[in-house]
Write a structure and sequence with these properties.
The complex is a heterodimer of chains A (167) and B (172).
Chain A (H helix, E strand, L loop, with lengths): L1 H13 L1 H4 L6 H19 L15 E2 L9 E5 L3 E4 L2 E5 H4 L8 H20 L8 E6 L5 H13 L4 E8 L2
Parallel strand pairs in A: 1-6, 2-5, 5-6
Antiparallel strand pairs in A: 2-3, 3-4
Chain B lengths: L5 H5 L11 H17 L5 E5 L8 H5 L10 E5 L3 E5 L9 E2 L7 H14 L5 E6 L5 H12 E4 L2 E4 L3 E6 L1 H7 L1
Helix pairs in contact in B: 4-5
Classes of the chains: A alpha/beta (167), B alpha/beta (172).
Chain lengths: 167, 172
């Protein structure tokens, strides 16, 4: 009995057709399919309107409102950035006596003027003064106040604050 | 010497046909790391703020709160919250608990006020210059809605911010 089974085994080995061992991939396929479905779902359900820079920590809030496409103002711990363009350093303005930030004002005026020019030509487009402020959670209110005041003075009065939802 | 019954011999040629899933596996191996990299695990949202616009100077002077509604104010100071702006000013100040702002207590107090003034949905936060942004956002959350047995109750969704210089004018 033992001899015959050994002979059969040898017989199997000598046959190259049957020597190729196949790994059963079916269970791995299952796992990957589920993972793929989950990732595709989280990928497509929400287009990313706000991209948060690595050095910026947004505050956490219970708000559920979806972000809109607006002018993007980033206030990090060291600088103010409008639509990807650095405008002013925080150190230069944090202790100034005036509420207005001149560099930010001139930059925002360029953007409001551009939007108004578009609104003149294209009737479907309307300048509503929307702006989204992405500010680091550690900045003091006196800085936020200056930025909000400057936004208000340049007709960007519809201010939204970017936050991270906690659920 | 292998012997097959005639019935099993019939099936010998089509012995366990398998689908070649290797190309699909290759696709998965490429797609899964790519999607893992692109996946967003933190969801962003926005909080709306209402500022008086410069075309409307009357709104600017009154703090964008209509006359007929009461203007509830919450002052955020270094020591805690101070609710003001309503006529019966018997509400005690909410002091800090353990070095942190007591948002739960503030929310509870505002819930009581909301029950008295159901039509009002505006609130003004009066913030001291050195209060950080994180605390402001948490205070806004506490004034926008309260949690009651897991349900969310809307309190004062129209939140505006103001400078705390006004706080001395209003409450004293």
């Amino acid at each position: 009995m033992a001899y015959s089974s050994l002979r059969r085994w040898r017989h199997h080995r000598s046959n190259p057709q049957e020597a190729t061992a196949t790994v059963s991939l079916t269970s791995m396929m299952d796992a990957f399919t589920i993972l793929l479905a989950f990732l595709l779902n989280s990928f497509s359900s929400e287009g990313q309107i706000i991209t948060v820079p690595k050095n910026l920590q947004l505050p956490v809030s219970s708000s559920q409102q979806k972000p809109r496409m607006t002018l993007n103002l980033i206030v990090s711990t060291d600088s103010i950035v409008v639509e990807g363009k650095p405008v002013e350093l925080i150190d230069n303005i944090i202790n100034s006596d005036t509420l207005l930030i001149p560099a930010l004002e001139s930059e925002l005026l360029i953007h409001s003027q551009r939007s108004k020019n578009i609104a003149d030509i294209n009737k479907a487009f309307e300048f509503k003064g929307d702006i989204t402020i992405q500010a680091d959670r550690t900045i003091p209110f006196k800085l936020l106040k200056k930025i909000m005041y400057t936004c208000g003075q340049t007709e960007f009065s519809n201010i939204s604050l970017a936050v991270i939802t906690n659920e | 010497m292998r012997h097959h019954k005639p019935s099993s011999r019939r099936h010998k040629g089509i012995d366990s046909p398998e689908i070649n899933i290797t190309p699909v596996m290759n696709l998965m191996i490429v797609l899964v790391p790519f999607l893992l990299l692109a996946a967003v695990f933190t969801k962003t949202a926005i909080l709306n703020l209402y500022l008086p616009s410069i075309e409307d100077p009357s709104a600017a002077s009154s703090g964008a709160v209509p006359e007929e509604e009461i203007a509830i104010t919450v002052a955020i100071t270094k020591n805690g919250f101070k609710i003001g702006g309503i006529t019966d000013s018997t509400i005690p100040d909410i002091l800090m608990a353990g070095g942190k702002f007591d948002y739960a207590k503030l929310s509870l107090q505002l819930k009581d006020i909301k029950e008295k003034y159901k039509t009002s949905d505006s609130i003004v936060l009066l913030v001291e210059p050195d209060v950080d942004y994180d605390s402001i956002v948490h205070t806004m959350d506490a004034s926008r809605e309260a949690k009651d047995n897991g349900k969310r109750i809307s309190l004062f969704p129209n939140v505006s911010l103001a400078d705390s210089i006004i706080v001395t004018e209003i409450t004293e």
